[in-house]
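TA notes. Do not distribute before section.
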Amino acid sequence: MKFGSLLVTSAIAVPAIALAVISQTGWPAAAPPPSGFASPRTVTITPGTLAYRMPGEFLKSERPVDAPKEDVRFRRPFEIMAYQVSISDYGQCVADGACEAAEGASDNKGALPATGVSFRDATAYASWLSGRTGETWRLPTDEEWAFAAAERFTDDTLGIEETNNPAARWLARYRSEAEAAKGRDPEPKPHGHFGANSKGVYDLAGNVWEWTSTCYRRASVNHQGDVESSTDNCGVRVTGGQHRGYMSFFIRDGKSGGCAAGMAPDNLGIRLVKERPSLFAALKAFWRSAAG
């Protein structure tokens, strides 16, 4: 009995010790990527809470209203690319036959971000990059993008409630975004042009909007502001930028059409999140590194 108790105690204590070490030293380094392919630089976003306004169209008594807010808690850190995917990086995916050529600029002088890419292009690139690095890359959710953007995330509230004119909110959004766009140069700029935000992520909310995995939502709320029902339209995805965008998944140039609300983005680009290993994989890597 005592022996069994010792086994149980050890089974609990050993992983706990390993987790304590990992929490202090960080996750063990991943195995070298295949063919020596360099993994993109990332920024670690530490845990915290975000007062998050939901994306999409929200109706109260069949009239459009501001979306409700909710507190989103990020319990674990996550890693996001420090810069947007560049033309040269995306070009390697094209050269490998895994991505379609982008419709944006092809001149790579100054490490320009890849633009003229659709949601489908972005997911194809994530799949290719995962295969080349041996890591798991994916598009961020809108919640993750907003949390990483910090002070550069724009709350898209309009403060217009239960108007009898459905076009009033659309016009108000358009005017707000048009005012913010005054003097904006839509030409893509080199990496770092728009600087880093408070979390060390570069060029967020510049003039390249970034695809997220979040679907467009149409929801009904009650008089208390709580969501009663909702329908997701995954043919339209949320994009993060100077303002929130809603774009059809096959669109590569926002200005050509496919924008579901407000002004179209200047450019569409890619920034990915790198998945951290599971607890089991982290423990396995810990024991492998500890064994020498």
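Switch to the second chain here.
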Amino acid sequence: MNLLEIKNLTVRYERQTAVENVSFSLKEGDYAAIVGENGSGKSTLVKTLVGLIPASEGEVQMHGMTPREIGYLPQSTIVQKDFPASVTEVVLTGCLADGGFHPFYSKKQKALAKEMMELLGVTPFAKKSFRELSGGQQQRVLLARALCATKKLLILDEPASVLDPVVTHELYGILRKLNRERGITILMVSHDIHCALEQAKTILHMDKTLKFCGSVEDYANTPEYRRMIGDCITTDDMLHVHHHHHHHNHAACKEEEGSAQ
């Protein structure tokens, strides 16, 4: 079943077109990575999907869920880091998907928050202030929060851009587990092309328009892929990517500089 169908989506800011005539669908249980150079519209696309930016043309259709039921992990910002709330309070705000404001959370919501905190290993610092945590711990807390909002779809915008390689590896391991064991569909913006190929089943290559949408294997044969990795690639590297992908022998993904978009 398709969870999301994007039809002829165009997004303009002032007079600039950030996303142009993009169409694709996301199937239940998929793990898709959006790749492309900086300024290619990747973040704008996901912000439009979660309702933060209005579409200028086209439509986003959701099946079996509302925009509020998408778990969304935005790019990390300075604002988040200064959040005075405790870890538990931050995670609980993910339960407010029904849109109302409740000063008191139900037993069910508290149980859900507790379960997600345990799943992501953040229970030991439940009472700590969010801003005292390391980058990796904060990302796990925000992921637990996003999971309180969804049973179906997680959208992540450069989730590893502020993390060191070890923590990045851990985070990607968690995402893979959520996808495989819980059947959660994942759509992730990534600037790290090797990591995207290693993690995802489907690749979307953005350059304002959608230049490619299909399997990792097919993407590895495109000029877009070759341009993204530069001319230094050898046939061995290609085999290496495929080998990794099929055997899930996941090495820690390299973090690259200059991920801001």
